[in-house]
Amino acid sequence: MLLNQFLLLSAVLFAIGVYGVLARRNGVLVLMSIELILNAVNINLVSFAAFREAVPGEVFALFVVAVAAAEVGVGLAMVLLLYRNRRNIDLTEIDLMRG
Amino acid sequence: MGGLFVLAASAAGSLPLGVTESGNWFLRNAWLIPLLPALSFVGILFFGKRLPRGGSELGIAALGIALLLSVCTGLAWMSHRDDYHGHETHLSVVAVDHDGHAADPGVHQVHGEPSVAVTNTVTWFQAGGVEFTAGTLVDGPAVMMLFMVTLVSLLIHVYSTDYVAGDRRYTHFFAFLSLFSASMLLLVVSENTLQLLVAWELVGVCSFVLIGHWWEERDNSDAALKAFLTNRVGDMGLIVGVTILFFAVGAARPDTFGSFSIVETNALASSGMLPHTTLLIAACCLMAAVMSKSGQFFLHTWLPDAMAGPTPVSALIHAATMVVAGVFMIARLYGVFFEGLSIAGTSINLMALVGGFTTLVGACLAFVQRDIKKVLAYSTISQLGYMVMALGVGAWTAAMFHLFTHAFFKACLFLGSGSVSHAVHSFDMKSDMGGLRREMPHTYRTFMIGSIALAGLPPLAGFWSKDEILAGTGGWGLLGGTGGNGAYTLMLVMGMVTAALTAAYMTRCVYLTFFGEFRGHGQPHESGPRITVPLWILAGLALVAGFANLPKGFQLVPESLQERFGHYVEPVAGYFPQVTHATPSWSLAMVSTLVVLAGAGLSGHYYFVRVTRASKAAGRSLTELPNGPTTRLAVARLGHTLLANKYYLDHLYTGIVAGGTKGPVARFAYRTNQEVLDRAVDGVGRTALAAGRVVYHQIDQKVVDGFINGTGQVSTDSGEKLRRIQSGKVQNYAAILFAAATVLAGLLIVFV
């Protein structure tokens, strides 16, 4: 297998993730898209680690997984609070910080 | 510390120190003894007010356990002293002496059966590659002090529960008694001079706090300040002396540039490996510390004023324990003093002179006091002088023995005076006391025992220790000298005169307090058991403590009972100088006893015969003859005035030293202020005003304000435009972020 294939997969995932983050209006789906981006990064890290036979890349990927879990925990809690307060999780309608 | 020492038999360039790190559990863990009262201090501070007895029970419990530990440590030390045959620690040294000659570290031979002290150290901190340690040094003097301090402190704790009962700062009082005990115990087990310095300052702080216990009265807080400031003078000497010794030791060691270790300092000083000049300077600096802490002439003036504190404090801190810290410090660093002041083989030196002079002037001052505590305070100064004098003439054991016995009888006397004042609500012997022997039998008897012990009549404690000091001067020529380190005949005479004076002023004190008719108001009554029981215990010790060190060759007891104190307390080790012991003399003992009797007899004749007769004639209780020598003789009147004004030392310090410098300095400062500074300030002000106007109109209004306003305008405008970007929608921000990332990635690809 070539490294290219993994990088391509990762790039596709990343692009889907970015699209999701920018285009979806549902907060939960935005969070899931962020997970896609992070996992694209993970694939990059792991594939380069395997290719170069360097363990730190895999270790780093593990850290990313752990941090992602924490991040999604916080994110979901925020979405939950939003829903409780506004009965709505449409991100385009949340613009309290508008200047 | 371990790595710094070479554990080997005496190799070339290694100095036997006379200490070991192994030993009985109690000897290695003496640090527990100061720790207990320290814990009780913290406990009383935090929980004292919630406890049923206001925290005093914590202090008493801590001191009780500490006393138990001290007794066990003492017993362990006795068997260690007799049976220890293990190795001792050696110190590697630079094998050249200060003249550049090859030195023989083994030159300091120990005579007699050696004692090996037990150390236990931990690293305190490291700085600049030097390891600073903290730890315990347990040997004879430390063990003796541990026992004495814990015992006296415990008794005074018990006494205080009655004496300060109902006081508004009862808990606070016991907290600081505990802290004081902890600091004093830390001081006596200190392994190095840095730790000693810390403990030294801590006892000073406790002394300050406790003298000022009733600080609402101005006199008391003044006395506390005076004590603290006078002690600062000496503390400076201690710091300088300790620093000198630190570097002096470093110069003699190959592996480090300094050490605070007491045993190393002493061992190097005793073996002649430190330059004599250095030792002399260090000893003089340390003497300043002794003079302030142990109330030696001319820094003694704080000690009588310190009697403003509660009586238990006076007994514990300003008579039995803290004020002997100076004496103990000399005893601890005796190698430095012995070599530095050349105690062996001379007939006068700084320490002996200071001590001898103090003992005389203190005793004289005790005659003119009306306040019973001040009599005892001056007596304490006098007796401390005795101890310093003894150390000055090389009678180390005699000095420590006198310290030991003095603690008991002086604490007994102070607590007795407290008991009396408790009954009559005053300390004034002349106006509020008299005839108390009927109303206060226990206090009277214990006070009498204490007085006789202080005066030094056989067989009470003071006699034995005082007589050893007199013999130790080596100045007794009749029927052959007594040996010792030199012929200190002057010190012998000073000691003899003081013995007579002591007996005389104590006779006066006892007469004014307990004999004649009661001159105060109300009905005095005996104090409760918490006061009388400690009194009796201390009186009992004042009776028997002297037998701890019966002189060598005292034919009335078997040899195994002679010089027990000296055997167990005096170190025979590398860290202790080679003192020559004086031989006791029957003739000297008899003469000194006769001198004491003569002093007591003269004073007794004056008070018990002539004043009593005059009282009967006058029909009221007199305190002195209506036409005594001070009214008839000009010389006596002059002497009395001099004494009543305390040799004008306070006037000298506050009036001439402080006032003399204060006036000219103040005048000079005022003139400088008016003519130089004020003019300069005025000129600067006027110039500044003119400059200010120009600056305001030209620069501030036009340049600065224009700039500021311009900046503001730009900010407003740009903000107005930029606010559109801040939509508040998270996805717009994400879009900008990703766009920027794309641009950056593009740049990366194109340019890198």
UniProtKB/TrEMBL annotation, chain A:
A Pfam family assignment: Oxidored_q2
Keywords, alphabetical: Membrane, Transmembrane, Transmembrane helix, Transport
Annotated membrane topology: Multi-pass membrane protein
One GO cellular component term: NADH dehydrogenase complex
Record Gene3D superfamilies: 1.10.287.3510
InterPro entries given in the database record: NADH_UbQ_OxRdtase_chain4L/K, NUOK/Mnh_C1-like
Presence of keyword Translocase: no
GO MF term list: oxidoreductase activity, acting on NAD(P)H
Subcellular location: Membrane
One GO term (biological process): ATP synthesis coupled electron transport
Transmembrane segments: 6-22, 29-48, 60-83
HAMAP family to which the protein is assigned, alphabetical: NDH1_NuoK
Family of this protein: Belongs to the complex I subunit 4L family.
Protein name: Uncharacterized protein
The species this protein was found in: marine metagenome
